[in-house]
Specification:
This protein is about 25% helix and about 35% strand. The chain is an alpha+beta fold. α4 runs antiparallel to α5 and α12 (about 400-415) runs antiparallel to α13 (about 425-435). The structure holds ligand MV4. Ligand MV4 binds near residues 156, 201, 202 and 235.
């Protein structure tokens, strides 16, 4: 076996490859960009080489630098992971020239599958089913229109050089054909520098089903069966599962046979995926072959009990496949969800920032038979930078059947907690629990069709979440005031009994009033009074009793936010801190009111003083700290209502103030 390999990638897949190499006793060399000097993947390897600036073009896509790093460290082989250089024919050739093993397919197979129409012709010859259509060289508009008429509408126009959904046009009728063709050709030349198109029968509500194949250098090729990746958004996979719901043994056999024929037609070696587009009736057609290991490979590993990276290393070293086809069986059901730093409510815009707080569900390595697996390239405190894919982790669960896998996924998502940036966790939760996914009524349009269910309006925070935030706030104040949770009797703040608290989210503001009692606090929420008792804290974890009932959760503070995790949901609650906002106090009926209970320690102006906005007017002491009340606007102090040394209750008017009228 290899003694040392270089991993030409970053993030989750680099960590994934390093873990298998370690298990097999293979030394690993990481490469890293300037943005990744402290990255998790660097720490996962035995050695690391800096390869350039943050921009991928100048680092992870710089094949020459990576080959130099491999040669300099004495690595025998390069694992490209996915993305970056994994399907780069020239890189595969350059590795071989440098005497390094490229852990991937032969360069000729990468090339053969690189062009859509050429690949289709090859597949046609190999007997792999294709969508009825035309993918020849003749690009004459009248000829193409006649071909489209023969196929029957709707017809799909695709850029021959395209991929990932770019340059596609649905044509509903012969009358629309010429205009759609011209538009498709324009996009194709702009995007790919090649205006050739192909025609296909357009499938309504298709599914994306792909077959994992593996071939060795002895001509053996096996199928590790299918994955259903129908749940996508703008051609980005969101959920993947294996096996495909509704798949029959006969259909699986037919798809596997077709995939193996596709691989053999290009003399494939290594891990590959043959993508099919499937009709709801199960009929399927070749779309393309991905000549690399894929992001979603863990679901296949979980249902087949294999380590596909170990297979890649073995095959690349020149060993035969670890298992024969008859030794491969399916066990249970696996689902993967891709957790991203992105904001679903803002069009899935990537969310850049740092993972200030990251808690993931209990996960043990898949080989131990654990049912939850997390593949991630980041840890708490790490940044999600604008330079690379903003994936935080892949969450993969296994169950005896789909139903069990689904409930484990729901549970695991409920335990996935992030503070510091927006994530798609709540969206994924809704997605896996929505009707069509739960009942496996899958197709590639699911997310768009169920938009309303997947984007419900923000709800007001439940009282339990508010209680957790309040308890945490009082606990955090216990460095300056006695902790109400540590008191046994009669505690009150500065002799005051009451205090107002405001927590807001996108659904509105919760106006609470707090009353300190010997046995805890009472929380008034509108007409209701809730008793809040026995709060206990352990890191971010909080336990308390609300009206006698146990409430559990976690609370993380981030500036003015209390991030409450409770009942599997994340409630980011903005606390309107009266101290922080004291200077902005509203002029209520010409009066400034005490933001909190306290004592007047200084009066800085006299009655009748004309002041400008921001002028300090008086100083209060509350919670053993001094708070200055500033003029909220330009105006005149009409009357001072307290003297130095007076106690004031929260909300008490302190002085009357009249704003200068705008000229
Ligand atoms: C199709 C199709 C319907 N009919 N071809 C999109 C990406 C490209 N690789 C192939 N794609 C499609 N080809 C025919 N003849 C619908 C899609 C399609 C799709 C396919 C797989 C996964 C997600 C998709 C989302 C929209 C459209």
């Amino acid at each position: 076996m290899f003694k040392k390999i270089l991993i030409a990638n970053r993030g989750e897949i680099a960590c994934r490859v390093a873990a298998t190499a370690r298990r097999l006793g293979i030394q690993t060399v990481a490469v890293y960009s300037e943005a990744d000097a402290n990255a998790r993947h660097v720490m996962s390897c035995d050695e690391a080489v800096a390869i350039g600036p943050a921009a991928a073009k100048e680092s992870y896509l710089n094949g020459a630098r990576i080959i130099d790093a491999a040669l300099a460290t004495g690595a025998q082989a390069i694992h490209p992971g996915y993305g970056f250089l994994s399907e780069n024919e020239a890189f595969a050739v350059a590795c071989a020239k440098a005497g390094l093993v490229f852990i991937g397919p032969p360069a000729s197979a990468i090339r053969a599958m690189g062009s859509k129409s050429a690949a289709k012709s090859l597949m046609e010859k190999a007997g792999v089913p294709l969508v009825p259509g035309y993918h020849g060289e003749n690009q004459d508009a009248d000829f193409l229109q006649k071909e489209a008429d023969k196929i029957g509408y709707p017809v799909l126009l695709k850029a021959s050089a395209g991929g990932g959904g770019k340059g596609m046009r649905i044509v509903e009728s012969s009358a629309d054909f010429k205009a759609a063709l011209a538009s498709c050709q324009r996009e194709a030349i702009n995007s790919f520098g090649d205006d050739r198109v192909l025609l296909e029968k357009y499938l309504q509500r298709p599914r994306h089903i792909e077959i994992q194949v593996f071939a060795d250098s002895f001509g053996d090729c096996v199928s590790l069966f299918e994955r259903d990746c129908s749940v996508q958004r703008r051609h980005q996979k969101v959920l993947e599962e294996a096996p495909a719901p509704g798949m029959t043994a006969e259909r699986r056999q037919a798809m596997s046979d077709a995939a193996i024929a596709a691989a053999k037609a290009v003399s494939y070696v290594g891990a590959g995926t043959v993508e099919f587009i499937a009709n709801q009736d199960g009929s399927f057609y070749f779309m393309e072959m991905n000549t690399r290991l894929q992001v979603e490979h863990p679901v296949t590993e979980m249902v087949t009990g294999t380590d596909l990276v170990a297979w890649q290393l073995q095959v690349a070293f020149g060993l035969p496949l670890p298992k024969k086809q008859h030794e491969l069986t399916l066990h249970g059901h696996a689902i993967e969800a891709r957790i991203y730093a992105e904001n679903p409510e803002k069009g899935f815009l990537p969310s850049i920032g740092s993972l200030q707080y990251l808690r993931t569900p209990q996960a043990v390595h898949f080989e131990t038979g654990a049912s939850v697996r997390i593949d991630s390239g980041v840890r708490e405190g790490d940044a999600i930078s604008p330079f690379y894919d903003p994936m935080i982790a892949k969450l993969i669960v296994w169950g005896e059947d789909r139903e069990q896998a689904l409930s484990r996924m729901a549970q695991a998502l409920a335990e996935f907690q992030v503070v510091g940036l927006a994530t798609n966790v709540a969206f994924l939760s809704r997605l896996i629990q929505c009707g069509p996914f739960a009942t496996a009524d899958l197709d590639t349009g699911l997310i768009e069709r169920y938009h309303d269910v997947l984007f419900p309006p923000v709800q007001p925070a439940p009282q339990a979440a508010l209680a957790l935030a309040v308890a945490t706030l009082l606990h955090s104040e216990s460095s300056t005031e006695p902790d109400p949770w540590a008191q046994t009797s009669g505690w009150r703040m500065n002799g005051q009994w009451q205090r107002g608290l405001q927590f807001s989210n996108d659904a509105g503001v919760a106006e609470l009033s707090l009353q300190y009692l010997p046995e805890g606090v009472a929380l008034r929420d509108g007409p209701e009074t809730l008793s809040l008792q026995d709060a206990r804290f352990d890191g971010a974890a909080v336990a308390l009793r609300l009206n006698g009932k146990a409430v559990l959760g976690s609370v993380v503070r981030e500036q003015e936010f209390f991030h409450v995790f409770h009942g599997g949901q994340h409630w980011p609650l903005r606390w309107r801190d009266p101290i922080a906002h004291a200077g902005e106090a509203e002029v209520e009926g010409g009066r400034l009111t005490a933001p909190m209970p306290g004592k007047i320690v200084a009066l800085l102006v006299a009655a009748g003083a004309e002041v400008v906005q921001g002028t300090p007017l008086l100083i209060m002491e509350a919670m053993k700290m001094e708070h200055t009340i500033n003029a909220p606007a330009d105006g005149t102090v009409a009357e001072l209502l307290y003297a130095v040394g007076d106690q004031v209750a929260e909300g008490a008017p302190l002085l009357s103030f009249s704003m200068t009228e705008a000229a």
